[in-house]
Amino acid sequence: MGNRFVKTEERVRVDIDGVTVADSTDVIALHEGSLPIRYYFPKSDVRFDLLTPTQNTTRCHWKGDARYWSADVRGRLHADVLWGYDEPLPGAADIAGRVAFYNERVDIRTG
Description:
Distance between the termini: 28 Å
Helix content: under 10%
């Protein structure tokens, strides 16, 4: 399948419109084929005060059912920019209770 979870050894930070929305040294990177690396943060390291759950859901055949959040930063809505798997399938148990951002829609810094 080519998918693998790797515990990062570095700090990972996510900014949206210049505001830090996530900052953690406890991140799991998912290397999933040709997709960009996705960084899964513990929810405790994400600013949920800037996030609102949406009705959007998706199904991944190997991770399970995902739900989404939108971010409201500096008066600008970033729809469905964050997702997580509350009960991932057994092969993706490493990301239970974690959330990830679309790299293409936020600023992610590592190191």
